[in-house]
Structure formats: structure tokens, C-alpha cells
Amino acid sequence: MEAFVPRQVYPNLSSIPRSYYLGHHAAGLSKMRSLVSQIDLVIECRDYRTPIVSRNPLFEANLGERPRLIVYTKQDLGSNSTSEDRKRENTIRKWDAPSTSLFTDIKSRSTISKVLDFARAHANHSTSLFGTRLMVVGMPNVGKSSLLNALRNVSLGKKKAARTGDQPGVTRKIGTSVKIIEGDEGREGVYVLDTPGVFVPYVPDAESMLKLALCGSVKDTIIPPTTIADYLLFHLNLNDPTLYNMFSGPTNDIFVVLEALARKQGRLKKGGLPDFESSALQFVQRWRSGQMGRFILDTVTEDALTKRLELLTSYGGSLHQARKAAKQLRKEAYLGGG
Ligand SMILES: Nc1nc2c(ncn2[C@@H]2O[C@H](COP(=O)(O)OP(=O)(O)OP(=O)(O)O)[C@@H](O)[C@H]2O)c(=O)[nH]1
Known about the structure:
By secondary structure, the chain is of the alpha/beta class. 42% of the residues lie in helices and 10% in strands. It is found in: Mitochondrion inner membrane.
């Protein structure tokens, strides 16, 4: 039998939309800008699995006047706690310096405590009697509201304050601030403001859009689920082609995997034909919930960020282009919100 050879490069699909910058993203950003002067620290969340493509330059451009803490969320979905993972995290820290970067998993108290320690230290330096105000920002679905809830729970033992969900756009508006650290010595505590996710203005290449879709920053109705599943298969094969052996042996054909999954789970349409769409969503969901391997999607090397920034600059991905592309997307009746 011939050895299995995974695809090394994913095709550049021209059918993939390159924008998802929606009306409520622009409105949210503008509101954040109007509030930023009252904020002591901005916590910018990025997805651990996409430390490059989930960076949104709009935050630096609009909120950059305030000190920033960068939090890479969902570490549990991308890290196996190996020396390779730690090495990668160090490279990311270097990219972000002089800002501090932390890596969190909402189920790990120790990772959440590090964010609380940082916030506490920041508050201790503040001379304000009115408390310290933090603002959590980030791309859709990176886990901002979950982080807020985890901070509040670990620090104060209190229940969920912000609504969370597995699709982007659950938080639509900036709400009221939530206390996460009790005040002392006559001083008010530390409060956090949750904000709606804001998508990057324009995505320079189809593969970046697929990464963001696979991690859930784009509604699952925008890109065909079988395409997202195929992109996941590409990564599974590069990492370990046995990760989906509950469905099929190693293959580069997503329909072979989806047909096996459909038959195993009874996801069949009239005439016993496999329901590829629902099987694709199920396949992707399995990975998103950490049941099919933990790995990251971006390639992290010392110079990867510089190269990305050069690409973005040469491309000139402006807000004007973003608006034009978003309008086009709406015209094509893709949008169901989110
Ligand atoms: N495994 C894992 N899942 C997480 C973590 N943080 C958040 N999630 C999940 O990610 C999904 C999105 O979380 P939210 O907190 O709603 O994300 P958000 O950034 O507030 O989303 P928007 O409403 O789009 O702004 C939810 O299903 C969370 O349970 C994490 O550390 N680990």
C-alpha cells in the first residue's frame, strides 16, 4: 500500500468572501473609541489558535492610546503543554512586547488568576478613587464574555454576568461594567466592560478567512460548511492523519470522511444519501470542542508577524475597501447577522 501524502498547500479559493466587517462591528468600534479615555487598561483578546490572523489592527489604531494587555484565549484548544508550545508562546510574547501577553483557558483557574494579578497590579498603580476600568475587546467569538465571566467567578465566586455562545455576535452592544475585583482601603474595585466582537476590515487571503471561519469568528452560514471541513481536514492531515480515525482512514478527500461520519451517525437524507452539510458542521464542531486534536492554524516563526504586517501594508486593506466588500456581501444576500 502506498504511504499517505497530505496536501502541503491549500488552494487559494476565489469563492471565499474576504470581508465580514458588519454594521454592528463599525458601530461597536466607534462607541469603544468614544469611551476609551475613561478606560485604564484595554484587554485585547486573540485566539490562541490564530495568533496572527485574529489580530485586529483596528484596535491598535483606535484604542492604542491606552495601555494594553494581550490575552490569547482558548489555550486548551491549541496547546498540548509541550516545550514546542512554550517556545511558540515565547515568540508571541516577543512580538507583543512591550505589551504583556498572557494565555488563558476559561476552565483553568491558574491562567485566569494571571489576568487578575495583572489587573490588580495595574489598579494598585492607579491613583483614581473611582476604581479601575478595563475594556475587553477582540474579534467575534474569541471568548471575551467568557473571559469576563471567568475573571468574576475566580475572583469573587460570582455566577455568569455576560451571555456567551458558540456563534459570533452574541454580544451586540457595550453593556454596563461588571466588578471583577473588590476594592480595599477606601478605594473602589476593578470593573470590566464587555464589548461586541469587531472583525478585521479586510482579510488579505482566502486561507486567513478559512482560519477565522474554522475558529468560529465568522457565522457558519457565510462559507459552505463542507469547505470549512475540508480546510480542517487539510490541517488534521498535516498534524496527524489518525485524528479522525473514528470516521475514516487517512484521505485528502473530505467527502470520504463526511460520508463515513454521516453513515455512522445516521445523518442521511431521503434515499439514504449522506447529509454532507450537517456532517460537515458536526466534523468542525468536534474539532472546535477539542475532541479531534489540539493544534494551532497559524505558522509562528520569529519573522512571521513582520511578513504579515508587510503583506497588509502592501495590500492597503483600508476601511473603504472593507465597506465596499461588506456591501457586496450583503447584496449577495449572504448575511444573516452575526
Ligand atoms: N475550550 C474553550 N472554549 C472557550 C474558551 N473561552 C471561550 N470559549 C468558548 O468560545 C465561545 C465564544 O465565547 P464568547 O465568550 O461568547 O465569545 P465573545 O468573544 O464574547 O463573542 P462575541 O459575542 O462574538 O463578541 C463559547 O462557546 C465559549 O464557551 C476557552 O478558554 N476554552
